[in-house]
Amino acid sequence: MKTLKELQERIQISFKQEALLEQAFTHASYVNENRSKGSKHYERLEFLGDAVLELTVSDYLFNRFPERPEGQLTKLRAACVCEGALVVYAKELNLSDYFRIGRGEENAGGRTRDALVADIFEAFIGAMYLSEGIDCVRSFLGKVIFPKIDDGTFEANNDYKTLLQEWLQKDGDISISYEILSENGPAHDKAFQVRLVVNGEPQSIGEGRTKKTAEQSAAQAALASYQSQEKNS
Amino acid sequence: MKTLKELQERIQISFKQEALLEQAFTHASYVNENRSKGSKHYERLEFLGDAVLELTVSDYLFNRFPERPEGQLTKLRAACVCEGALVVYAKELNLSDYFRIGRGEENAGGRTRDALVADIFEAFIGAMYLSEGIDCVRSFLGKVIFPKIDDGTFEANNDYKTLLQEWLQKDGDISISYEILSENGPAHDKAFQVRLVVNGEPQSIGEGRTKKTAEQSAAQAALASYQSQEKNS
């Protein structure tokens, strides 16, 4: 098992309150098996870390996407802090290597169980917030989460066809259809071209190697165009 | 309708970015009916305010109740930021008086609809956070929410009998019963005394004007005693 000193050096943050860092990496099963040590487990830090993540991510999304409506921001935030995403962050940081768990939990594979790994990430953020403050958390997430937001990692969860439909239906029912304009090339290297038609009017054209990606591309282009029109109106 | 100047004087906070305050009190229906004004509606601020409330309340609970386990804190936080609670805060501050909504929404009673009133409170907090910073929000909530937490307003949602049961069952199954020791007085002024018995051992005594409040009181006393034992062990 690696030491928390090594972790702090690696992430270049030296915790003023190292006991909190230790607590963030201690599971209740370890506390129960080592009562004489009087350790604390991470659960209360996880409670706090959850809210710290919620705010720092919300704040980033709010400023990063000044034109996106609340519904899209809410979906994107959910994708950034869902268990699956937390597991990815925790694994990239190898947080499991520092986790103190009881023997029973260890034998049951607890160290790598998704729900626990996600918990450690939240507890770790909670400890960082208490020991170093929210600006330190923000700058840390600027390495761990925000670049993924910029790269569109979480947009895959956004479906432009659905987003477009939501956008257009704000003002009531509307008819949306996609027409295939062309389909070329051999089976392993197809190229599709589709046209988006809204209430009978052609709106945009999308291209892609499958019908689906071509439709998504047409929807994304139309959405961007509507949003920029609203912005400038 | 009252002016936002009046609101700022009353709460003794002068917004550096008054446009944000205005946005927090503007409904989408108003924006739609007054397109030429180019106003923005509150929804994005509500997205942000929701997360600001979550963190400031979590932080307060974390420090205020250093001995409470995560599960209890999570329940208490949910009670503090649920729609019903937000409506109470908003009404105490008369926030509806400042709300700009469209005519249709006004005629439909939107100004006093709970979901909208709760939204305004969150948007108002979002605007305060952006304009004045998190410390200002914290100090504002120190007048609006935190005293209610201290007064036990949200504890009514906590049921000590259930909390005690959860606490005791951490270490496996256990038998819990309440025995009536005495029942005195006339029908309109009863006094009950009950004894809590855990695994056959008497633990605590509670008194109350109904059997239920006497049981809650016994459970609360036992819970406090167990928690302080754990703290000192």
From TrEMBL, chains A, B:
<feature type="binding site">
    <location>
        <position position="122"/>
    </location>
    <ligand>
        <name>Mg(2+)</name>
    </ligand>
</feature>
<feature type="binding site">
    <location>
        <position position="46"/>
    </location>
    <ligand>
        <name>Mg(2+)</name>
    </ligand>
</feature>
<comment type="subunit">
    <text>Homodimer.</text>
</comment>
<protein>
    <recommendedName>
        <fullName>Ribonuclease 3</fullName>
        <ecNumber>3.1.26.3</ecNumber>
    </recommendedName>
</protein>
<dbReference type="GO" id="GO:0042802">
    <property type="term" value="F:identical protein binding"/>
</dbReference>
<dbReference type="GO" id="GO:0008033">
    <property type="term" value="P:tRNA processing"/>
</dbReference>
<feature type="domain" description="RNase III">
    <location>
        <begin position="4"/>
        <end position="133"/>
    </location>
</feature>
<dbReference type="GO" id="GO:0005737">
    <property type="term" value="C:cytoplasm"/>
</dbReference>
<dbReference type="InterPro" id="IPR036389">
    <property type="entry name" value="RNase_III_sf"/>
</dbReference>
<keyword id="KW-0540">Nuclease</keyword>
<dbReference type="Pfam" id="PF00035">
    <property type="entry name" value="dsrm"/>
</dbReference>
<dbReference type="GO" id="GO:0046872">
    <property type="term" value="F:metal ion binding"/>
</dbReference>
<feature type="active site">
    <location>
        <position position="122"/>
    </location>
</feature>
<keyword id="KW-0378">Hydrolase</keyword>
<keyword id="KW-0479">Metal-binding</keyword>
<dbReference type="GO" id="GO:0019843">
    <property type="term" value="F:rRNA binding"/>
</dbReference>
<keyword id="KW-0255">Endonuclease</keyword>
<comment type="function">
    <text>Digests double-stranded RNA. Involved in the processing of primary rRNA transcript to yield the immediate precursors to the large and small rRNAs (23S and 16S). Processes some mRNAs, and tRNAs when they are encoded in the rRNA operon. Processes pre-crRNA and tracrRNA of type II CRISPR loci if present in the organism.</text>
</comment>
<feature type="active site">
    <location>
        <position position="50"/>
    </location>
</feature>
<dbReference type="InterPro" id="IPR000999">
    <property type="entry name" value="RNase_III_dom"/>
</dbReference>
<feature type="binding site">
    <location>
        <position position="119"/>
    </location>
    <ligand>
        <name>Mg(2+)</name>
    </ligand>
</feature>
<dbReference type="InterPro" id="IPR011907">
    <property type="entry name" value="RNase_III"/>
</dbReference>
<dbReference type="Pfam" id="PF14622">
    <property type="entry name" value="Ribonucleas_3_3"/>
</dbReference>
<keyword id="KW-0963">Cytoplasm</keyword>
<dbReference type="GO" id="GO:0006364">
    <property type="term" value="P:rRNA processing"/>
</dbReference>
<keyword id="KW-0507">mRNA processing</keyword>
<comment type="similarity">
    <text>Belongs to the ribonuclease III family.</text>
</comment>
<keyword id="KW-0819">tRNA processing</keyword>
<feature type="domain" description="DRBM">
    <location>
        <begin position="159"/>
        <end position="228"/>
    </location>
</feature>
<dbReference type="GO" id="GO:0010468">
    <property type="term" value="P:regulation of gene expression"/>
</dbReference>
<dbReference type="GO" id="GO:0004525">
    <property type="term" value="F:ribonuclease III activity"/>
</dbReference>
<keyword id="KW-0460">Magnesium</keyword>
<dbReference type="InterPro" id="IPR014720">
    <property type="entry name" value="dsRBD_dom"/>
</dbReference>
<keyword id="KW-0698">rRNA processing</keyword>
<keyword id="KW-0694">RNA-binding</keyword>
<dbReference type="GO" id="GO:0003725">
    <property type="term" value="F:double-stranded RNA binding"/>
</dbReference>
<dbReference type="GO" id="GO:0006397">
    <property type="term" value="P:mRNA processing"/>
</dbReference>
<keyword id="KW-0699">rRNA-binding</keyword>
